[in-house]
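Please check both lines for our workbook:

___
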Amino acid sequence: MALLKSFFKRLTSPSKAALGIVLFMGFIGGLLFWGAFNTGMEATNTEEFCSGCHAPIVLEIQETIHYSNRSGVRAICSDCHVPHNWTDKIVRKVQASKELVAFAMGTISTTEKFQARRAHLAEREWKRMKDNNSQECRNCHEFAFMDFSEQAPRSVKQHSTALASGDKTCVDCHKGIAHKLPDMKNVENWQ
């Protein structure tokens, strides 16, 4: 019995060297986990990753000003569809995992199936952007920095009205700015 007590006491009171080794291993393990996690997060923010399921959509953006323009600034999928701040990015990635499951189950695995669901997917994305005040748009486009003297008269009117009212967000007027609008005839809330 004394031998058993001695053995148990040794297990419950580790030496300083053992404690140091355990802490060091935990630190290295944390760094490796964080590095792998961050690498995975960045890998899922590439156009190559997005085009695995959304190839027709990724091709569409190549015809817009977000892809090729006079300033040389180019937006990729994650610039508009993944929040930039870390907490919201994690939430969006968890939501997007549902899309990966849908693709794996074959719900949107072909262009035809994707087009059939496109209106629903677009409406869901527009709602998300409306709910967050089009934050991804505002990462690059902010009313406070717009030079209204460089805009067309119609744009000035719309932007200044939206700025004054405070209840409009980018996606209210700019649906289809980077993608072709889906067929919305069977969607109830289409405006």
Observations:
- The radius of gyration is 25 Å.
